[in-house]
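User: hey, got a sec? need SRPBCC family protein folded
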Amino acid sequence: MSTPDPTGRLVPSTDGHDLVLTRTLPGSVQDAWASITEPDRTARWYGRWEGTGARGATVRVQMGFEDDSPWVDVTITQCEPPHRLRVLSTSEDVSWDLSFDLSGTGDRCELRFVMHHIDPATVGDIGPGWEYYLDQLVASVTGTPLPSWDDYFPAQREYFEQQPR
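Assistant: Yep! Here you go:
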């Protein structure tokens, strides 16, 4: 496979920069919500998780497509089914503030993913990863083969490093 065209944008925010990516998913908003919140469905594109999925709760997520499949703690900071999920992912000395916003009607759903407060110096390394994971989400929903990480990194690094800051 060839390198997919990157779509992410580095966007100034009130307190720094956000990395914003979007995808269109087939199916309803409720189905997309299930893909990002139900353990067996998140396992298909990101990783399985365990715990009680509720606002304020911390669950453990095993990143199923990373070397050594590490576990990370993820605190659910906002949960408004089936439209908005915001989480704080914590591993070692890094915290990532992530949100998923879903909208649409009928048989199409628009997903807006945001990594809040991203350090622009790191976007070249992080952006390709989110492109990869969101394309995995689309593949898991459409039943197409999962993409290969090798098609994303380092091929997309330069695109993200050149994002305006």
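Quick note: The chain has a mean pLDDT of 95. Let me know if you need anything else on SRPBCC family protein.
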